[in-house]
Amino acid sequence: xxxxxxxxxxxxxxxxxxxxxxxxxxxxxxxxxxxxxxxxxxxxxxxxxxxxxxxxxxxxxxxxxxxxxxxxxxxxxxxxxxxxxxxxxxxxxxxxxxxxxxxxxxxxxxxxxxxx
Length: 116
Known about the structure:
Blueprint: H1 4-8, E1 13-19, E2 22-28, E3 35-43, E4 46-52, H2 60-70, E5 94-100, H3 110-113
Antiparallel strand pairs: 1-2, 2-3, 3-4, 4-5
């Protein structure tokens, strides 16, 4: 994850409150009208960003923009779909990006995803 000073330099992000292991704020949405609420944290061995909209789920482009604001292009992050017994849903239009600290995700071979 980029450091907080670098994140704050993004022309899209407005940080409203900071803590020892994270912050909350928003970015002005270049794809649609309105703003996207963000909560970022880096504790318990994970880097995390939640991306929430007022009345709909974020689009692929909005998720991609959040990923590019918070992580470098050579970093892999994930959106998890846990077992139903582990669901937590505090907001109906919030999605999350995750990356373990200090290790990389194993990803499938590109050929299994599509033709390059």
